[in-house]
Amino acid sequence: MTVARLRPEGATEPDGRVVLTLYVAGRAPASARAIANLNALIQERRLVVDLTIVDVLETPGAALLERILVTPTLMKTFPAPHTRVIGDLSDKKILLQGLGLPETI
Amino acid sequence: MPTTPAKPRPFNQPRIRTGIPGFDEVSGGGLPDSRTTLVVGGPGCGKTIFALQTLVTGVRQGVSGIFVAFEESSLQIIANCQNFKWDLNKIVSKKLFFLDAQISPDHLQAGKFDLNGILAAVKAKADESGARRVVFDGIDVLLSLLNDAVAERREIARLNNWLLESQLTGIVTAKTDCNMVNPRLEYLPFICDCVISLHHELVERVALRSLRILKYRGSNASTSELSMIIGPNGIEIASAAKTELDYPVSTDRVSSGVARLDTMLGGGYYRATGILISGQPGTAKSTLCGAFAKAACERGERTLYISYDESSDQIVRNFNSVNLPLSKFKRSGMLRMYSVEAESQSSDEHFLRIQALVCEHQPLCMVIDPLSSLVRVGGVSHAANVVSRIISFAKQRKITVVCTTLLQGAFDNVEATPLQISTIADTWIHLSYQIRAGERNRAITIVKSRGMGHSNQVRELVLSDNGIDLTDVYSVEGEVLMGTARWQRENQERLQQHACEIEFECRREQLKNSQAEALTRIELAKRELKLREAELEALLSQKKAQQEQWIQTQREVRNRRRADLPVQHGSRKLLS
Fold first, then answer.
1. Top CATH class, A2-99
2. φ and ψ of B323, to 5 deg
3. ipTM attached to this prediction
């Protein structure tokens, strides 16, 4: 399992973090784009997230468990509501909607 | 992702059996093993059932399977398939695994995606369970979300490559519109080794299902349309008969139920043949069937009576009135009666029902009355095909089948049947009406009877309280009379005959009398002759006496006269 934790620079609050899991498929183009897009958003909004990246090609069991159909899939497990966003996260509007963030700062 | 080249295919590709009756025979063994099959069709055609039935068959053979449901949820599918006798509940989650892969309608899609997720999940499940077969049901639903033809093509290729690499046997189902064309998926058939299309259409207001193998690489499977029904065991295909016409033949005779008809046929019907009784409504076709059924039951042979016209009780009651009691055979189970409306099912479904009844009851004799009502469902050509299959099926099982067919309207003169089944029936008996002098009489004639010499005479069929009987018809100088006209004419003839005889007697008497008279006259003439002869004799003797008397008198006179007698020659002596 490849785990990467990202924290925006300068953030110090330990609680109130958004817990995200991003399921990718190795180095597939859509998955690479998703990682890049998500990183960009986090940097831009200075989000505090607890991000886990799961590679379904290496751990297919995880995909089965969570019923991951397509890759990439982004799952938000905290705070409620639980949402899923599928796709390479190039559509920012939908991504923000999925994360429960307002469109403009 | 690098792809490994597919293994070279052997000439005789291994197949997996689908367990769908008829399909495995037509396709040469089933679907291609370790390859992908595409099943397309409109909504409600049976694609999901086809795929699931194949998996269930695999489970019965000990091969686990995975069903990935993109369209309906697995619970929905399992609930819908409860009616089939598959024992789904026993095998789900033990040998048959369902993966729900429906994207929720409220999904959030932020860009393009690929199918690696589901493929990884399926692979995990396959490794875990040892499944060798996988179904992707309704893949078009997922792909439509991509909304990009290029992306879809890529994902389809990914799916195909994944299947090839994994060496699993895959069945992919997808919806197409009624023209079997889905622009989205038009490249899919090119990738798959086998493409099957299912069709569901209305023919003359009856729903008919059909299946067609559009493509099957490495096989010479027939690509014609095959009739299909969805029955209690799932899909069943009416396989196009590639079998030779090879029935067991017998020279045994079976009674038709009417003694005189048996004589006309030279002993009766041949066992295990098809007999057709045709005629207009009311010509007693069903009654002849009843006689056949009764004779069969009395011989102890199980009989199946199928009626598309009347209910069983009505038939039994009607036959009671012509001395054909069938109730006791019905009660004892020797006779099984089955009545259903022809329009209630398609002709294929009727055929399957008949098959089921035959397997259950195991009859030796069968009646189908009327067979022609199968035309009412689904058109003539289709019904003709079904009918010939029914008769072939019965003959294969050595069942003697008696069918009736209704002729209507002007057909009576033409002796042609709407179903053209007269060619497959071995014996054809035609019933008709003779309307004359205010009466309707029934005529029966044997049109043909293969393999036996039969009478070519028309007989009159008479129904009475004592049963069915055939009587001779009056036929002279090209005139054929039946019923009371015949009786009248026969009576007339009798009287004429009688009058002739009397006349003859009279004449004979007369001649005798004249003969006697003549004899008498001969007697009289004879007597007269005698009389005349006597008279003649008397006359002669009288004449003689007279002459003597005269001579004597002359002498006396001369003597007394002592006269000088003139000298006469020869009389000198007198003077001395």
1. alpha beta
2. 60, 40
3. 0.77
Interatomic CA distance for residues B183 and B185, integer angstroms = 5
B288's tokens: 């002849």
- As a whole number of angstroms, the distance between CA B247 and CA B397 comes to 8
Residue of B nearest to A99 (CA): B108
Residues B380 and B92: their CA atoms lie apart, in Å, by 43
pLDDT digits (tens, 9 = 90+) for B425-459: 888 888 888 887 788 888 898 888 888 888 888 88
A28 contacts B111? CB cut-off 8 A: no
pLDDT tens figures, B488-516: 888 999 999 999 999 999 999 999 999 99
For B100, the closest of A67, A88, A95 (CB atoms) is A67
Which of B117, B124, B127 shows the shortest C-beta gap to A73? B117
Give the Å distances, CA to CA, from A56 to A64, A71, B82, B122, B142: 9, 8, 35, 11, 19
The full DSSP string for B174-206 is: EE--TTS--GGGTTHHHHSSEEEEEEEEEETTE
E strands, B348-466, are: 365-369, 400-406, 427-436, 439-449, 459-464
* Residues of chain B neighbouring A34 (CB-CB closer than 8 A): 111
Q: Is some CB atom of chain A closer than 8 A to the CB atom of B161?
A: no
List, as one string, the DSSP characters of B440-482: EEEEEEEEEETTS------EEEEEETTEEEEE--EEETTEEE-
**Binary contact (B111, A71; C-beta < 8 A):** no
**Cα three-residue angle B358-B364-B369, rounded to 5 degrees:** 65
Token pair, residue B175, equals: 């919806």
